[in-house]
């Protein structure tokens, strides 16, 4: 089991986005088997490399390691602040440079933060379509945290976090283990290559 990878698109340090990210990761980790690894990717640390990768089509260094971790994850938690009623540009840029097919079938827990609960639908009309396009499997419960949710009487944030974490854990546990595949296991026959019939 590769474990969970957590992607946080918060801009500040500290940020409410990272706070929600950590709570979601703790809830999912508690619901999974003991010892499940959790790796956090702070997108602000890769901002320049992400723009370079978007321009060149090539990721290297720490960004490459982060992309590989996301592709190999058993489960993913993705959290963004809401700007202009959608996910942040930092968040979108990262998933723009994720390789096609890398998230296919990966269980994903979606989270977002914002100043007001009026933007909570951004998860359903912006984030879910993005991950549907990437062919990931989003858990039913997504978690949006507005400013008032951090005061203690904010609409059951703890309950929503626990429910979403349990749903992610259930999908991760139910997912069949991916078999390592060698690209040379099924080569195209030489005669077929000569005939121009490559697959």
UniProtKB/TrEMBL annotation:
Keyword field: Flavoprotein, FMN, Oxidoreductase
Domain NADPH-dependent FMN reductase-like: 5-150
Cited Gene3D superfamilies: 3.40.50.360
InterPro entries assigned to the protein according to its UniProt record, in alphabetical order: CE1759_FMN_reduct, Flavoprotein-like_sf, FMN_Rdtase-like_dom, NAD(P)H-dep_FMN_reductase
Superkingdom, natural source: Bacteria
Signal peptide residues on this chain, from the entry's feature table: none
Stated name of the protein: NAD(P)H-dependent oxidoreductase
Organism of this sequence: Actinomadura graeca
């Amino acid at each position: 089991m590769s474990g969970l990878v957590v992607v946080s698109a918060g801009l500040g340090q500290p940020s409410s986005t990272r706070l929600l990210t950590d709570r979601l990761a703790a809830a999912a980790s508690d619901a999974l088997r003991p010892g499940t690894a959790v790796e956090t990717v702070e997108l602000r640390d890769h901002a320049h490399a992400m723009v370079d990768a978007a321009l060149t089509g090539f990721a290297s260094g720490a960004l490459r390691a982060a992309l590989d971790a996301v592709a190999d994850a058993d489960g993913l938690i993705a959290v963004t602040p809401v700007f202009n009623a959608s996910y942040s540009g930092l968040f979108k840029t990262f998933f723009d440079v994720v390789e096609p097919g890398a998230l296919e079938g990966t269980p994903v827990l979606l989270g977002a933060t914002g100043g007001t609960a009026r933007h909570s639908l951004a998860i359903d009309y912006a984030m879910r379509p993005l991950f549907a396009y990437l062919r990931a499997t989003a858990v039913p419960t997504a978690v949006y945290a507005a400013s008032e949710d951090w005061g203690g009487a904010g609409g059951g944030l703890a309950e929503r976090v626990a429910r979403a974490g349990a749903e992610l854990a259930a999908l991760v546990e139910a997912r069949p283990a991916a078999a390592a595949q060698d690209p040379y296991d099924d080569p195209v026959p030489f005669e077929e290559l000569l005939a121009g019939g490559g697959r």
